[in-house]
Amino acid sequence: MPANETKPFVRTADTKGLGQRYKLGSAFANAGRGLAEAVRGERNLRIDAGFAVVAIALGFALRIDTASWLAVIVCIGMMFALETLNTAIEAVVDLASPGYHELARKAKDCAAGAALAGAIASLVVGIIVFAPRLLALFIS
Ligand SMILES: Nc1ncnc2c1ncn2[C@@H]1O[C@H](COP(=O)(O)OP(=O)(O)OP(=O)(O)O)[C@@H](O)[C@H]1O
What we know:
Membrane topology: Multi-pass membrane protein
CATH architecture: Orthogonal Bundle
Protein name: Diacylglycerol kinase family protein
Oligomer: single chain
Bound molecules: adenosine-5'-triphosphate
Radius of gyration: 20 Å
GO molecular function: ATP binding; kinase activity; metal ion binding
Main location: membrane
Organism: Senegalimassilia faecalis
């Protein structure tokens, strides 16, 4: 369906305040659709997914401890959350400012910066968790 075609809202700002029930299942379905759309549309998210698969496989192969698993899982969740938020901000900016605007540039650059900060932290965690174990494997 083209983006500009009218589609009934699941919930509008008007109906929100009326105390109408919004099924938990619908909320999860909408959130899942958003995540799936972000993965489909964002190259960075697909790269993150690739790193996540490698990290999980390495975690099992190298039998990392519980604390390391927690760090890896938090990093994976953080990257998916940040990239999905980045996608959301890009969509809202494109809607609000299809033409060039300094504030639009700032919003998109900051959203991308947040994802970059998360990626750098995840890389450092990955090095701390996996590098010593991989080195020990190759040296022994
Ligand atoms: N409306 C706009 N006004 C000003 N600058 C913009 C605008 N849209 C995009 N830009 C600039 O172009 C850059 C890339 O924007 P684009 O929408 O293509 O994001 P993207 O390449 O999909 O980003 P990412 O790789 O983070 O997903 C932004 O970071 C911003 O600097």
